[in-house]
Amino acid sequence: MGKKKNQKQQPSASKDDLLNTLGDFTSKENWDSFFTIRGSDDSFEWYAEWPQLRDSLLPRIQQHPSPSSLSPSSSLRILVPGCGNSRLSEHLYDAGFGDITNIDFSKVVISGMLRRNVRDRPNMRWRVMDMTQMQFPDDTFNVVLDKGGLDALMEPELGPQLGTKYLSEVKRVLKSRGKFICLTLAESHVLGLLFPKFRFGWNVCLYAIPQKPSTKPDLQTFMVAAEKESSNELLQIISSFDHSSLACNPNQASGLLEALESENQIRGEYLSGSDVLYSLEDLQLGAKGDLQKLSPGRRVLLTLGEQGVSHFCYKAVLLDAKQQSGAFSFHCGVFIVPKTRSHEWLFSSEEGQWQVVESSKAARLIMVLLEASHANADMEDIQKDLSPLVKPLAPADNDKGNQIPFMTASDGIKQRSVVYQGSSSLTGPVVIEDVVYENTDDDVSHSLPFRRLIFERTEGLVQSEALLTRDGLFDKSVYGAEMKKASSSSKSKRRGALKRNNESSSKMKVYHGYLASSYHTAIISGFSLISSYLESVASSGNRVKAVVIGLGAGLLPMFLHGCMQSMQIEAVELDPVMLNLARDYFGFTEDKRMKVHIADGIQFVRDYRNLYAAGNEVLLSSNGSCKLSDAESRSTAIDIIIVDVDSSDSSSGLRCPAADFVEESFLQNVKDTLSEQGLFVINLVSRSPAIKDAVVSRMKEVFSHLFCIQLEGEVNLVLFGLCSESRIEEDCILDAALKLDKLLKSEHPEISQSITDAAKKLKRLK
């Protein structure tokens, strides 16, 4: 059997005509037609022929080859699936391997091969059979020898479904210590299925079959030999050839070597104990112990489902309760987390997941984290899809075979409509949606709409969230009760299934007097640390100069603009698309106290610092560059710098900000740019304690004093760096917060109180 027509060793013109009968290499009818035209006596060798195969193949088939002898063993039971009319089986039989079974789903070729061999090879067996549904008992054969069969099943446009079924059958019919020998062109999509299927409990080697002499590099045949071990040990794949000396087609060589390197890297991560994803097949082979038994404290990341087996694929976490002595409601349960909540600390962190296990009263909990691919699926359909996938994960004593219960974490959203969907070359895909959250008080009249800005590049990060009111105005009789509710935490929420609705009320507009994001509240509460300085600037008739790096939807600058009349705000945004979206969908406006500069934030601070260090007045132009002016003589140092930008590179371990914003050189430039009483604020989002500690350590080296607010139940850590040598004591923070409250001039006591309450959580990092 074979692959694409242009990948075969070139046959004669008559063979080309025959190949035209094979449009689909997985079609029984096509193969019947092919073999009817060709006949059984004229064998067709897709890949390497016997003279090239013999010396590499015979030693691999031997059950226990001896250095002094490679004589065949007649006791070996060999299966050749997808045999076609190749002479490979005949050569093996003539070499002394007398127990060979050949199968093919083409009745035409099996009949022809039986007639061809009935006299000279009477013990050779020929059966019409589908290699993906073999009719043999388990543990039947010592060797399964495949020459192009897997390649034929793995046509790229058909996906891995047939290949998966076939390899499962191969593993089933092989005896312990048996071997699967696969002759293949070793294309990356084939190896991408083959290698993972033979991980735990298999010893895999890769060989290059010598080619016929040729004037130019041709497609080469490779041999993958996988031996079924008695243990579930995981071994690296060994290749028997010099990677740099492959004389085959360059594209074929690079694809093979990349697949081999990738697989060995994955195996290395398994062996090192890294937190990697296991397949269900790996776990059933014992990769993480006996799944039939509960193992207190066991936590395993895994994937469930695959193409052709289920509608979707899923990422999941298997957790066996740490304490197995208590009373459990059930032995095994499934907890589905919607995409909108899978980021949350409770579901994404190991500590949070153990809390869910404890509250679920399950001896084993399988937590399934939904992703974007599940967005349009009904929860009932997902449960039906998952049911057969999770059944093998239940412990042996699972409530005497009772059905595994499903639980679901609500995404908290009652209504959702998309008002904008587009993309930016800098930010990537962006979605703006209006949502109404579920009301826990069951008071539908108080369910208010919010508008959310979502960055798709960071797993659907909700970058900004704003309250919508009629015409952007606040009617206390309508919204007053709702304002008493705690603000939601926005910059970590992710959206779920999208329901497109472009008929949102045009009268509903963003209201800038409300803080929907708890991290915005935390940022402003940190102003308490310099509230005395802010008060003195305001009382002198001067303006506090603040720079916000990262405009987003413009909600934080607009809130400050409305509440602090003495503040001059300069927003720095790298992406001009963000500015347009802030204007068009979030009501952002500029005036003499609010300016936006389309510029790189790091370069902006560096330029400002250089000019300020020279003792010159700085005016900021609309294109983000710095110009000198002699218009005024007073200092132009910045009083507050806020960094609130997400990272486009998740490999750094930081979601917010980008790694460059926490480098010591940038931090030093920030300090040099700030006034003597200046404040630096940075919203830090990372799940790595080591990264957080490293950032804190750098900031301590630069700033005189460092404070923080850890948002409850979130990964956001808001850090505050003070330039002043004098520091505010923690027992004085409440008084400072009350002083800030008088400066803010908020129209809503609830917002003022939330800022004061957040200030109480300020902790000094010593």
Automatic annotation (TrEMBL):
Q: Does the keyword Transferase apply?
A: yes
Gene Ontology process terms (BP)? methylation
Q: What region holds the Methyltransferase type domain?
A: 81-182
Molecular function (Gene Ontology), one example:
S-adenosylmethionine-dependent methyltransferase activity
Origin superkingdom: Eukaryota
Q: Is Transferase one of the keywords?
A: yes
Which keywords label this protein? Methyltransferase, Multifunctional enzyme, Transferase
Family per record: Belongs to the methyltransferase superfamily.
Q: What is this protein called?
A: Methyltransferase type 11 domain-containing protein
Tell me the lineage of the source organism: Eukaryota, Viridiplantae, Streptophyta, Embryophyta, Tracheophyta
